[in-house]
Amino acid sequence: MVKIGFIQDEPIICAALGVQVSQTPFEKGDIKTLYKQCLDDKEKSKKLVNMIMNNHKHMILGDFLPYVITLEDISRLGAIYLWRNVNIQNLIFGAGIEASLRVIRPNRYKDVVSDLGKEAFKVYERALELEVPEGDARYVLPEGTLTRMIFSAPPRYLVKLANTLKIQELEELKEIGENISKIVKDNFGLEVPEETMPSTWNFWGNRKVNKVGSHKNENDIHSVSLNKEVNGSLAMHAQLVRQRQFLCEIEPLEKISRKGKFVIPPSFPEEIKKQYKEVAEKAKEKQLNLMKEKDLNFVYSILIGQEASAMIYGKGSGVIETSKSRSEGVAQWEIRNKVGIPVTRELMGFEDLRKEIGPRCWREGICIEPTTFKTKKSICPAFYKSKGKWEGTLEELLKTLEVSDETFSV
Question: Rounded to two decimals, what is the model's pTM?
């Protein structure tokens, strides 16, 4: 069961709590404990937030309001579903931060995942022993893996989000929606008229993803529009929806399960590839058996590395921002490969945009590597090649940043 709470404080302290939620191992305390740590030294907390915003450009920390909704033990799937609603095309505005499974090792999962969870976590731990990065090792884990997050939005949009979640079939989402409604009523006294959202993700069905290309109508940033098919792991789609720039319309989860296709991170050695395939076979079998019974809990046995197709829709500066932030060498490799670089290449055809798009080392001649936040470790292949001073073309830079991956089907 998701533990849902409400904290009121200065926006910068809420942002500091977001940093702690993102970066602190689960075993070091729950969200209440992390909040107390932020309060123990407020000045240190404020300096941390400003340092991250100025040095690492994580500008979401400036979006927080003087309160947050906290969600402890939310499933990875529940977190993705909440995030996919928050974007301008759904007319929901908000900010939040989730525990980063690229930094933190998860340590629990929903009971319904059962033996599959035990086996997946065993392979995950073995992958880490073989020095596979946490961000890649998570591909073997089920969507029923438990995580945590905090979220902040004006009451109107909290109500709109709550209304959307309350009508979903999945009990976890209904529970979150009902609790958010109660929080708004109890803390703001507002009786906000119900609003509906223009889109939702389906659990059942066989809806197709229609292939449409991106285009630009005129010679300025605001005329850029994007309608693009993207195929990638649910790990990648989670990165995409957290960005809040695009509307991401994913195919029904039932179709994802029946397709049974999985993305293999390039860092996986042969031993982990073999074990990953074994876990994937058991995961698909469990999903299909639950679907036969029309049991919606099948969604928790979908693996984070399982492939899904989606259409993404973006407009104006949101498309430009995706080119900037998701084609960077420090961006997660799959979203860089399948979203950031392809979008940048399509925009390169417009001469007036060439200095507005692409990685920072291309746009500004500035490289923030190797001091990537938290890890303090260089992960950018372009940095290795140029020692932080890129002097080649944009196309050469994109080729350097591309990574090959594999998929398999069961």
Answer: 0.93
Domain-embedded: residue 202: no
Domain hosting 302: range is 215-363
Count: domains in the chain = 2
As beta bridge partners, residue 406 has 264
- 17 and 56 fall within a common domain: yes
Is the per-residue pLDDT at 217 higher than 70? no
Burial class (CB in 10 A: 0-12, 13-18, 19+), 228: buried
Token pair in block for residue 31: 């969200």
Give the SS3 label for residue 141: coil
The values of phi and psi at residue 133, to 5°, are: -60, 145
Asked if pLDDT for residue 219 goes beyond 70, the answer is no
What is the DSSP code string of 150-181? Answer: EEE--HHHHHHHHHHHHTSSSHHHHHHHHHHH
What was the pLDDT predicted at 391?
87
Whole-number Å distance between alpha carbons of 39 and 55: 23
pLDDT value of residue 390: 87
Token pair, residue 18, equals 């977001």
CA distances from 188 to 73, 110, 234, 290 (A): 25, 32, 35, 41
